[in-house]
C-alpha cells in the first residue's frame, strides 16, 4: 500500500483545514506500516537526484505566529491556549487579530521585506540535496549505499520557501526560514513506495527580517538549518518504513539503560492556539482541552503540569499556575532543567524538544525522549 501524507500548511483553504481536522481524529500517524522484507531487499541502494526549487516558490514573510503555525489540526482558537478565547471572544476575533498583526508587520518592516528575497541562498537546491543524502545515508539500511546510479530514487521538491515568525525579543519579531514541498521514493520499476509532503523551519538561528537582510551569513546558516529539518523529516519517514532511526543506533549500558545521546534537537515552535491533545502529538495521558497538561506534579522544586503520549515517550510540560510568571521554555528555564535532570536520573534522555508559544510568549514545551518520561516524572507523585 502507498501512503500519501499531506503536510498541513498555512496556505490551505478553510475547507482543506476542516477536512484534515476530521481525519486527524482518526489517524495518529500516517503510513505507519513498515515495508516488507522483500521491499526492503529491493532497496539495495538509493539515489537523491538534484532537488528542484520552484522558480516562483518564494512567498512573502509571515509576521503572525497564528498564521505561521506549522501544524494545524483544529480551527484557530480551539487549541490549549485558545480554549478560553474560543469560548469567549471566538474564532473570528482571533482571525481578525492575526490579519491585523500581519498588516502591522508588513508596514513596520516594509523595506526589509522587499529585500528579503535576496537573502535566499542561490544554492538552496544543493543544500537540501546534501542534507537529505546525508541523513538517509545515516540509516543503517542505506549506510554507504547512497549512489547517483541507483535505480531507486528519492525525489525531493521544494515548492515554497519564506520567512515565518517564531517569537519576540524585546518587542522585535523574530523570524526563521521555512521550506515546504514534497518527496517521492520510487523503486527500480518506477513503483512509488512512499510519498509525503514536508513543512520545515530553521530551529535556532533566529533574527528579525531586517536582521537577516543585514546579516547574510546568519540567513545562510538559518537556511542550512531549514534544509537539515527537511532532511530530518524525510529521514524519519523513510526510517519509519524501514523500522530504523537516522543516525547511530542507541547503545545500551550493562545496567540496561540507554546510553546518553548528544545535545537534544530543537524543533520549530508550536502555536498554543492550534495545539490540541492530538496535535502535534497524540497525548492520551492527563491531557485536557483547556491547558493540555492536566496532571499536577512537583519536580526539583518546580510546580508543573504534565501530559503524555500512550507510551510516555512524549510529554508536554506547563507551569502549574494559570498564568506563568516566567517563560516555560526548552531553550533554558528552571522548569526545563528540573525535568531534564529528573529524567536523566531515571535513565531517560531528551532526544528532541520544542516550545509552545502563544501571543509571543513561551507557555510550555514538548519533549521527545528515549523512554517512558511520563512514568519517570509522575512516579510517586
TrEMBL record:
Domain of life: Bacteria
Residue numbers spanned by region Disordered: 242-263
The protein's name: Lipoprotein
Organism: Luteolibacter flavescens
Amino acid at each position: 500500500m502507498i501512503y500519501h501524507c499531506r503536510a498541513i500548511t498555512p496556505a490551505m483553504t478553510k475547507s482543506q483545514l476542516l477536512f484534515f481536522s476530521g481525519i486527524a481524529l482518526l489517524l495518529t500517524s500516517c503510513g505507519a506500516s513498515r515495508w516488507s522484507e522483500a521491499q526492503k531487499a529491493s532497496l539495495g541502494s538509493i539515489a537523491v537526484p538534484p532537488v528542484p526549487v520552484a522558480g516562483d516558490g518564494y512567498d512573502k514573510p509571515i509576521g503572525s505566529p497564528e498564521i505561521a503555525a506549522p501544524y494545524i489540526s483544529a480551527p484557530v482558537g480551539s487549541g490549549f491556549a485558545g480554549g478560553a478565547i474560543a469560548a469567549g471572544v471566538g474564532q473570528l476575533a482571533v482571525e481578525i487579530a492575526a490579519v491585523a498583526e500581519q498588516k502591522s508587520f508588513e508596514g513596520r518592516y516594509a523595506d526589509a521585506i522587499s529585500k528579503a528575497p535576496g537573502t535566499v541562498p542561490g544554492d538552496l537546491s544543493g543544500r537540501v540535496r546534501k542534507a537529505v543524502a546525508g541523513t538517509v545515508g545515516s540509516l543503517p539500511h542505506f549506510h554507504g549505499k547512497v549512489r547517483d546510479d541507483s535505480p531507486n530514487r528519492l525525489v525531493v521538491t521544494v515548492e515554497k520557501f519564506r520567512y515565518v515568525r517564531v517569537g519576540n525579543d524585546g518587542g522585535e519579531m523574530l523570524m526563521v526560514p521555512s521550506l515546504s514541498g514534497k518527496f517521492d521514493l520510487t523503486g527500480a520499476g518506477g513503483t512509488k513506495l512512499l510519498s509525503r509532503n514536508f513543512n520545515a523551519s530553521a530551529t535556532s538561528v533566529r533574527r528579525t527580517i531586517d536582521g537577516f537582510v543585514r546579516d547574510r551569513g546568519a540567513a545562510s546558516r538559518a537556511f542550512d538549518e531549514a534544509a537539515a529539518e527537511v532532511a530530518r523529516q524525510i529521514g524519519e519517514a523513510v526510517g519509519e518504513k524501514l523500522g530504523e532511526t537516522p543516525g547511530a543506533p542507541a547503545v545500551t549500558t550493562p545496567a540496561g539503560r540507554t546510553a546518553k545521546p548528544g545535545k537534544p534537537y530543537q524543533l520549530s515552535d508550536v502555536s498554543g492556539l492550534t495545539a490540541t491533545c492530538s496535535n502535534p502529538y497524540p497525548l492520551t495521558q492527563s491531557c485536557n482541552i483547556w491547558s493540555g497538561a492536566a496532571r499536577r506534579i512537583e519536580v526539583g522544586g518546580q510546580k508543573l503540569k504534565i501530559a503524555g503520549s500512550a507510551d510516555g515517550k512524549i510529554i508536554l510540560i506547563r507551569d502549574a499556575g494559570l498564568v506563568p510568571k516566567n517563560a516555560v521554555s526548552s531553550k533554558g528555564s528552571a522548569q526545563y532543567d528540573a525535568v531534564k535532570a529528573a529524567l536523566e536520573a531515571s535513565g531517560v534522555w531528551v532526544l528532541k524538544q520544542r516550545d509552545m508559544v502563544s501571543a509571543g510568549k513561551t507557555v510550555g514545551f514538548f519533549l521527545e525522549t528515549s523512554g517512558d518520561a511520563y512514568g519517570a516524572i509522575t512516579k510517586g507523585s
